[in-house]
Specification:
Elements lengths: L2 E6 L5 H10 L4 E5 L5 H6 L1 H17 L16 H25 L3 E10 L6 E6 L4 E4 L1 E6 L3 E3 L14 E2 L1 H5 L7 E5 L3 H12 L3 E5 L11 H13 L3 E3 L2 E8 L4 E7 L2 E7 L1 E4 L3 E3 L6 H4 L3 E2 L2 E2 L12 E3 L10 H15 L13 E3 L4 E6 L2 H6 L4 E7 L4 H6 L5 E7 L5 E8 L2 H13 L4 H6 L9 H10 L7
Parallel strand pairs: 1-2, 1-6, 2-3, 6-19, 8-15, 9-10, 9-15, 10-11
Antiparallel strand pairs: 3-4, 4-5, 7-16, 12-13, 13-14, 17-18, 20-21, 21-24, 22-23, 23-24
Helix pairs in contact: 1-9, 3-4, 3-6
The structure holds nicotinamide-adenine-dinucleotide (NAD).
């Protein structure tokens, strides 16, 4: 065997797994066809946060008078905004290269396919530099990620010019003046928020009856109101029937609320979910089970083919970087013979729009659908001292407790910096905290996190500041 472990794909699933493998003494190689860090660092989580920060600062400049401040005019250099985002991505990708070196992980640049072998499939890599290399290992982990799903049936495939996926939306030559975003998940909403901040006329189209449909209904409703105040427009319960080219952009034909209409814009962004990268890996020949574009795995990420595991986006939802890292660490600890905790830790989700949205665990509706009796608490930022001082009074915290046991089973937030706060509730849920621990915890004053305490108190009739 050349290695104890070969990992295919160096996103936050693959590269974190490689580091943990190296810590556990496994001789490890990682194969990557594009850039270390995968979609997250290069084309997703990180460069979008850089763009969003530029948009947020620019938008705030429009509200300086609220803080007793003023500057002469405001403007942006779009190329520099994009360039900053690319530099941030590059810096982090180089950081991953450093980490691979530090942990003595061999990076193989090329595209991998699998061939039948024992005790694990062989990895055949078409090397970027030319030629091929066959690698044998005791174990193989697939961490090939996912890509944007498209809707060929509506006429126009993403062409990088008029119809974009997240990839093109990250590196456009100019800021579009008008934009239609199809899909109101995290990707659609983040791009809508960024381009709106820079002044674009943005309409978001959502097939379901509310935006951010995975979030708690109250959060979806508050998000829509907050975004509408910023000038974003929405069509929900909408069906896009056709995309077609116009002289200056794209026309999007849709039906919403029984009414047909056509929206024209310079650009359309398609953000209707993602599809696992399961193709051209040799999975069929190995007999790997694939269900709706995702590799089927067991409770230790095993695929059922000896020595072959899958983690992260390619192994199904939730399609989040931190879920991929979590699964990878679990998987490699299992391979190394440890007894890691199960994969059922609560996984927080964040959308970095203005305002931000963050949640963990069950929504109120999902808890009720499970037959649980719930105790729900709420606390708005408009009465939180720090939020008022900071001028960030939009939004609220909502907690969902199991009425029978007192366990926290869900938390939902919308407002400034809530993506930094949700971890408190994730920790509480991981430790199976009940209202007793949350109420007994001392929250620093003045902070927006006090709203988390108050929302817990509120669920048990003890709210203080309202
Ligand atoms: P998504 O599945 O979260 O959202 C897609 C939305 O598009 C859904 O609300 C769906 O109802 C809607 N939709 C589907 N078909 C449609 C159609 N024909 N017309 C109109 N609407 C339609 O997918 P996404 O936003 O593309 O993101 C992909 C994954 O990446 C998600 O799982 C997301 O959580 C993850 N992600 C997370 C972050 C983050 O954590 N900040 C950021 C980006 C992406």
């Amino acid at each position: 065997m050349d290695f104890d472990l070969v990992i295919i794909g160096a996103g936050p699933g693959g590269y974190v797994t490689a580091i943990r493998a190296s810590q556990l003494g496994l001789k490890t190689a990682i194969v990557e066809r594009e850039a270390l860090g995968g979609i997250c660092l290069n084309w997703g989580c990180i460069p979008t946060k850089a763009l969003l920060k530029s948009g947020e600062v620019y938008e705030q400049l429009g509200h300086l008078a609220d803080y007793g401040l003023s500057v002469e005019g405001r403007s942006f250099d779009f190329a520099k905004v994009v360039d900053r985002s690319r530099k941030v991505a590059k810096q982090l990708s180089s950081g991953v290269a450093f980490l691979m070196k530090k942990h003595k992980i061999e990076v193989v640049e090329g595209t991998a396919t699998l061939e039948k072998a024992s005790p694990a499939p062989k990895v055949v890599v078409a090397l970027k530099a030319g030629g091929s290399r066959t690698i044998t290992a005791g174990n193989v982990i697939l961490a090939t990620g996912a890509r944007a799903r498209t809707i060929p049936a509506i006429g126009l495939e993403p062409d990088g010019e008029r119809v974009w996926t997240y990839r093109e939306a990250l590196v456009p030559k100019a800021c579009p003046k008008s934009l239609v975003v199809i899909g109101s998940g995290a990707i659609g909403i983040e791009f809508a928020s960024f381009y709106r901040a820079l002044g674009a006329d943005v309409t978001v189209i959502e097939a379901l009856d509310r935006i951010l449909p995975v979030e708690d209904e109250e959060v979806s409703a508050a998000a829509r109101k907050a975004f509408e105040r910023r000038g974003l427009k929405f069509r929900v319960a909408a069906k896009v029937s056709k995309l077609s080219k116009t002289k200056t952009g794209v026309a999007v034909a849709l039906e919403a609320d029984g009414k047909a209409e056509t929206l024209e814009a310079e650009v359309a962004i398609v953000a209707v979910g993602i599809a696992g990268n399961v193709e051209n890996l040799g999975l069929e020949a190995l007999g790997v089970k694939v269900d709706r574009g995702h590799v089927v795995i067991d409770e230790h990420c095993a695929t059922g083919v000896a020595g072959l595991y899958a983690i992260g986006d390619v192994a199904g939802p939730p399609w989040l970087a931190h879920k991929a890292s979590h699964e990878g660490v679990h998987c490699v600890e299992h391979i190394a013979g440890l007894k890691p905790n199960g994969l059922n830790a609560p996984i927080p989700g964040c959308t970095y729009a203005q305002p931000q949205i963050a949640s963990v665990g069950l929504t109120e509706a999902a808890a009720k659908a499970k037959g649980l009796t719930v105790k729900v608490g709420r606390f708005p930022f408009r009465v939180n001292g720090k939020a008022i001082a900071a001028g960030e009074t939009e939004g609220f915290v909502k907690t969902v407790f199991d009425g029978a046991t007192g366990a926290l089973i869900g938390a939902h937030m919308i407002g400034g910096e809530v993506t930094e706060m949700i971890q408190g509730f994730a920790l509480a849920m991981t430790m199976e905290a009940t209202e007793a621990e949350l109420i007994a915890t001392v929250f620093p004053h003045p902070t927006m996190s006090e709203a988390m305490h108050e929302a817990s108190l509120d669920a048990f009739g003890q709210v203080l500041h309202i």
